[in-house]
Each structure stands twice: as C-alpha cells, then as structure tokens.
C-alpha cells in the first residue's frame, strides 16, 4: 500500500541574499487523489520577500513515499575501497 506526502517548497535567505530552497512535509495521505486534492486546494505560489533574490513560498509537491527498503541501496554502509584493500594485505 502506497502513501503520498505533500511537501511545502519554499526559499529562505542564505545570508548573502541568495535563495536557498527548503522542503517540509505537511501531511500524508493514503491515496494520490487525496494528496493532489489537498495540493490543488492549498497551493499558492508567490514571492514573499526580495532581500536580493526573490524568495518564493506556497509551492506544494506530492511525492510517493517508500514503504519498503533494500539494504543494498544504503551506500553509506559499504566499506570504502581503501578499507577493502587493507583487509587483503592482512
């Protein structure tokens, strides 16, 4: 069974006037239709500030969430090539 999340996409000021994109989850739905209905109702893209670059908010994005995983895709658990080479020398 799939789950669908609605994210709010918005910019924040990076400190030098540059826009840094952010993404926050708003809610999760059981069906894509419910998620898209929520997006249609509440999405309101607009510029909310302009310190240098325009900062936008109100953009909503629907994404399907994973409901299972494969440990082989966890690249951070793999040993580095150097560690593997050292093991061969022992």
- Classify the secondary structure makeup into a structural class: alpha+beta
**Helical proportion, percent range:** 10-25%
Total count of domains: 1
Count of individual helical segments: 2
Order of helices and strands: EEHEEEH
Query: Mean pLDDT, nearest integer?
Result: 90
Strand ordering within the main sheet = 2-1-5
Residues in β-strands, percent: 35-45%
| Record field, number of beta strands | 5
Q: Which stretches of 5+ consecutive residues score pLDDT under 50?
A: none
Rg estimate, integer Å: 20 Å
What is the approximate shape?
flat
- Quick one: biggest sheet? 3 strands, antiparallel
Distance between the termini: 48 Å
What do you see in this structure?
The chain has 90 residues and is α+β, with helices and mostly antiparallel strands. The chain has one domain (3-89). Helices cover 22% and strands 40% of the residues. The chain contains two helices and five strands. It has helices at 32-42, 81-89; strands spanning 3-13, 19-29, 46-49, 55-57, 59-65. The chain has a three-stranded antiparallel β-sheet, covered by helices on one side. Strands 3-4 form a two-stranded antiparallel ribbon. The longest helix is centred in the middle third of the chain and has 11 residues, at 32-42. The radius of gyration is 20 Å and the shape is flat. The N and C termini lie far apart (48 Å). The mean pLDDT is 90.
